[in-house]
Specification:
Blueprint lengths: L14 H4 L2 E4 L10 E5 L12 H10 L9 E5 L8 H10 L5 E4 L2 H16 L8 E4 L8 H12 L5 E6 L2 E7 L4
Parallel strand pairs: 1-5, 2-3, 3-4, 5-6
Antiparallel strand pairs: 6-7
Helix pairs in contact: 2-3, 4-5
Length: 176
Amino acid sequence: MYLCLMSASEPIVNQVAKSPLMSIDLDEYLHKGDLVDFDLKDRLFQGLILREKDFREFIKFHDWGQYEGKNVRLFCSADAVIPIWAYMLLMTKLTDANLVIEGSEDDMEKGLILQAISKMMEEDFTEAKVVIKGCGHFRNNEFAYTELTKALIPHVASLMYGEPCSTVPVYKKPKG
């Protein structure tokens, strides 16, 4: 049996909290809004082509308010060529969405990661000693952490990976 005796005059001090390290958890900056898939196959005539007149009619009467604040992924699951103007027309109506991406689920996640990094960079990291927490829940971890590193390097004094109590040095600004 071990007994830990502490003097009442010696308070417990959290050395990690006292350190000058800034800890970043990219997950905290990630938009938590709903993900909505918008499949253009549902707009194809006979499952083959997108007719401009029909598509413009759809654009005119569709309830676009349902996408407000959401993350919208545009794609076509059918083997059809979608003209560029169709995506452009959709974008004119999806202006209240948080994020609109054309592409795969990975493309959407990468878009959300870049948006989170952009939001995070609104903070001041000038000459900061930064620890990037290594517990991200992304399918694209390599993408997330390389993009985050690329964004921080021009600003920070040093960059580490892991937890403040156990870090791996990644970058140290050269003196001079």
